[in-house]
Specification:
By secondary structure, this protein is of the alpha/beta class. It is built from 8 helices and 5 strands. It has helices at 15-28, 43-53, 62-85, 96-106, 111-121, 137-147, 159-171, 187-200; strands at 4-8, 33-37, 89-93, 129-134, 178-182. A 5-stranded parallel sheet has the order 2-3-1-4-5, sandwiched between helices. Bound molecules: adenosine-5'-diphosphate (ADP) and thymidine-5'-diphosphate (TYD). Residues 9, 11-17, 143-144, 147, 183, 186-187, 190 line the site of adenosine-5'-diphosphate.
Length: 215
């Protein structure tokens, strides 16, 4: 099996930006990889995503929300992540720890239920490394709201909720396979730090180069 890398962090923490740069680096060395995201990554999961994150006025019960995240993940892990890991590196924008931080730490859902769902409907698959971009929640939400035309339901939640989620992500530092990167710094510096981290751990066989806009 090839390696599975997840990017995590609150909305606007720079995940998509950093995934784009990392993808530029990987193309330079002709590494075989895919980029995917959660919720989403399959046709059905993208449909479930619309129910979950658009500001559509649906007031889902917390467990309905959790079950829908897992319906989406079940499809995604079985149809995309596992089959691809047999051949190539898989980069994923959000995975298990988003559910842990948003639905459990942020919204107070049941940890046992999450673990049950992950074990039974996501093959207990965990990333080989999770890179958390740690950004001040006030800054991140502002970045994200400046940027997107459609606000997601989660971006419209209270500052208190985002602070809780953010603290949840920071606390993941105790996990061996989670690395926290300071996402408040300039885009290129964050990128270099991510590449250095992956190279230091010899994450893939080849040395990964930096990728800059004009490359
Ligand atoms: P996410 O995918 O985590 O929601 P994005 O990568 O879409 O975050 O970034 C949200 C916005 O913030 C974009 O406009 C992006 O250009 C900007 N941004 C990303 N990283 C940084 C950074 N390190 N410093 C300043 N702005 C950033
Ligand atoms: P998205 O636009 O992909 O995130 P970002 O703004 O970081 O680019 O929106 C996904 C939203 O779904 C985000 O607010 C986090 C939330 N989410 C959960 O609450 N639980 C989960 O398990 C996942 C995967 C996402």
């Amino acid at each position: 099996m090839k390696k599975f890398i997840a990017f995590e962090g609150i909305d606007g923490s720079g995940k998509s930006t950093q995934l784009r740069l990392l993808s530029g680096s990987l193309k330079k060395i002709k590494e075989n990889f895919i980029i995917t995201r959660e919720p989403g990554g399959t046709e059905t999961s993208e449909e479930i995503r619309k129910i979950l994150i658009n500001d559509n006025g649906l007031k889902l019960l917390p467990n309905t929300e959790l079950l829908l995240f897992y319906a989406s993940r079940h499809e995604h892990v079985a149809k995309v992540i596992i089959p691809n890991l047999k051949k190539r590196l898989v980069l994923c924008d959000r995975f298990f720890f988003s559910t842990f931080c948003y639905q459990i730490i942020g919204a107070g859902g049941s940890r046992n239920l999450l673990n049950y769902l992950h074990k039974n409907f996501a093959f207990n698959l965990m990333p080989d490394i999770t890179i958390v971009l740690d950004v001040d929640p006030n800054k991140a939400i502002q970045r994200s709201l400046n940027d997107k035309k459609i606000e997601t339901k989660f971006e419209l939640k209270t500052k208190r909720f985002h602070k809780k989620v953010s603290a949840g992500f920071r606390k993941l530092s105790s996990h061996k396979k989670v690395k926290i990167i300071n996402g408040d710094r300039e885009i290129d510096i964050v990128h270099k730090n991510i590449i250095d981290l992956l190279n230091k751990n010899k994450f893939i066989k080849k040395k990964i180069p930096y990728y800059f806009k004009n490359d």
